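Hi support team,

I submitted a single chain yesterday and got back a structure, but I'm not sure I'm reading the token output correctly. Could someone confirm the output below corresponds to the sequence I sent? I've pasted both exactly as they appear in my results page.

Thanks,
R.
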Amino acid sequence: MHRFRAFALAAVLISSSGLALDVGDPAPTFVLPSLGGDDIFLRDFCGERLRDPSATPRVVILDFWATWCAPCRRSLPAIRETVARFDSTKVVLIIVSEDDAKTRSRVAGALLPLAGNEYCALDTYRWVMQKTYGLSAIPRTFVISPRGKIEAILASHEDPAVLSNELSKALARVRAE
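Hi R., thanks for writing in. Yes, this is the structure output for that exact sequence:
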């Protein structure tokens, strides 16, 4: 009974936290450790103020994922294939693993090798997913413009054409600016 109350309370806090993000909102920035131990900063890839001013901002596909999530395991290969069809100098995939310390060892086996424009961040305590992005469920994918604005939020990726279409639209907007 106490577990249920705690879960219900957490669900209410998450849903009423005011963090509901929408298309057009600035993507909340974050820093997370990578599989290799380096830090991954969203500002390395997009936003008004990149950490490295000489870097070229890119469209970011931010995918919240976990090895224990069956829909995540089914959708991630299609996401990776879709991103691979685009110019790696213009698009980057950041896979945010929501695996805890017990299942973290499976992450490398599930994801490696990573392509040159793929990064895996470890959100072991789900701070970025829940507190920063206001999510209560995965899989969830954000398409973020080079300027750091949310272009699309996808709840499921069963049809890779949806992600491909959103990516194409984001890149077309970049060319038009």
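A quick pointer for reading it: The chain has one domain: 20-176. Let us know if anything else looks off.

Best,
Support desk
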